[in-house]
Amino acid sequence: MAINSIGNGAFGNNFLFNTATNNKKQDSISQLWSAYGSYQNNAAQALSGLTEIGTNVRSLLASYDDAKSAFNSEFGENMDALSKSAANVKKYNFSLEDKAGAITTNTSTDEDGVTTTTTTYSKELQSAIDAVKGLVDDYNGAVKFLNDNGEVSKRVDKLAQSFGDTTYRSSLYESVGLTTKSDGSFEIDEEKLANAIVNDPDKVSRILGKDGLAGKAESHVSFANSQKDSLFPTAQKMFGNQLTTAQIYTGSAFRNMTSMNNVGNLLNMMF
Prior knowledge:
mainly alpha, two-stranded antiparallel sheet, 7% strand
């Protein structure tokens, strides 16, 4: 009887039950902190990965901004230079005051019998030649820039094609000393150009002036400038959906949302 009384007393079943309950709580708490430790390690690794991605995204966007800035700067320089040289040739008067003395040729023979012919242009003629050379050099520069950057966007490629349309008038340009190349750029035969200016200045003005190459160049520049804000693609178009995804997963909103989710998981484990 005494034994049964003790078994049903304060140190009987209730004691055994309370001890088992306490052990379970301790095990749960131990598991909780173990799980929390694993969460901290995993979270730290995940955050480190996101930080690295974020750094790469920022670096990529900085490179994009630099490339866009360089493109726009060079584009503007080429268009401005061509616009000025075209305007100069458009209004240029190729009629010389002194045609007779415009071209001087001297021939000399050295002691070995080698003959050398030297051609000299008057200051007025040389000025006219330089005006045409300026236009050609700037036109060639614009053609090269657009061709070199044709893969940047379809708009740039189309501009390159429009600047290359000089080939359809190649025979006219050839008659005044400008040889048209396959990409639309030019080579100058200076002697042929000089003779054309001296002998037929009106023809030179017609082919190279406002109704010719200079006018065409101005038209190209005007159209190109109207497109300048949309020539270089946006970062989204250039890099695609990967950029958007990276920005989402490295943004503060995502990190905050992830932290709240982890807190929720921790609370679920406790209760």
